[in-house]
Amino acid sequence: MLENRSIPACSVIPVLGYPDVGAAVDWLRDAFGFKLRLRIANHRAQMDVGDGAIVVAQRRGAAGEDCHSVMVRVDNVDSHQARALQHGARVLDAPADYPFGERQYTVEDLAGHRWTFSQSIADVDPKDWGGTTS
Length: 134
Hints:
Blueprint: E1 12-18, H1 21-32, E2 35-40, E3 44-49, E4 52-58, E5 68-73, H2 77-86, E6 90-97, E7 102-108, E8 114-120, E9 131-133
C-alpha cells in the first residue's frame, strides 16, 4: 500500500462526528490522551491513538444522525467497490480522486452504517492542500 502523509497509516480509521471539532479535539486530548496529528481547517482533524487513529469531523446532522462512519484503507478502490456492489452495498459517493492523495468511495451497508474506502494514490504533504500538522 502506498504511503501518504495526508492519511494515518493504519488500516481502519473511525470517523466521529461532533458539533464542535476544536472542542472535541481538546476534550479527547485531555480526557483520553489522544494526540493531534493533523487539523483540516475547522471542520476535521486526525488524532493518533496509540498505533491507530481517529478522524474528528464536523457533524452535519442532529445528535444521533451522521455521527459516525468507518474509513478503511484498501489497495484498489475500484475493485473493492465492484465487490461491495455485488453484495448490495448502496453507493453514497462514487470513487473520486482528492487533492490530499486519496481515491475514495462511500457506501452504506445492510444496516445503514456508512463506510468510506480509501486508496492512497500519491504521497501528499498536508500543507499542499491546507492541512496543518501538530
